[in-house]
Amino acid sequence: MRGVGLLTKVVHVKADKFVMPLRFDEGGGWLVLCEVRNSKSLATGHYKVGARFIDRIEDPWGDAKIPGDWLMYEG
Asked: Which of 21, 34, 39, 45 is most buried as measured by Cβ atoms within 10 A of its Cβ?
């Protein structure tokens, strides 16, 4: 996986960063740092967002903390 597409009610603009937890059916997961590549306003009031994965850490139990360097990430 290299990125994600999502619908959101939150406005995101190109280069915004956000953290997304991913859980897998087979168990485990990741905490992923994402960067917005595109965003489009929809008539529904939602936004269609495309983002690429910048970094990830393993999150086997769903309790991983956001790494401090992600809070200052300039990419």
From this structure: 34
Is the pLDDT at 74 greater than 80? The verdict is: no
Could you give the 3-state DSSP secondary structure of residue 55?
Answer: strand
Structure-block tokens of residue 7:
């619908």
Average pLDDT over residues 34-47: 97
The 8-class DSSP code of residue 71 comes to H
Strands, E, within 1-75: which ranges?
Answer: 3-8, 17-23, 29-41, 47-58
β-pairing verdict for 17-23 and 47-58: unpaired
Spatial contact of 51 and 33, defined as CB atoms under 8 Å apart? no
**CA 35 to CA 2: how far, in whole Å?**
11
| Planar angle of CA 68, 73, 75, nearest 5 degrees | 150
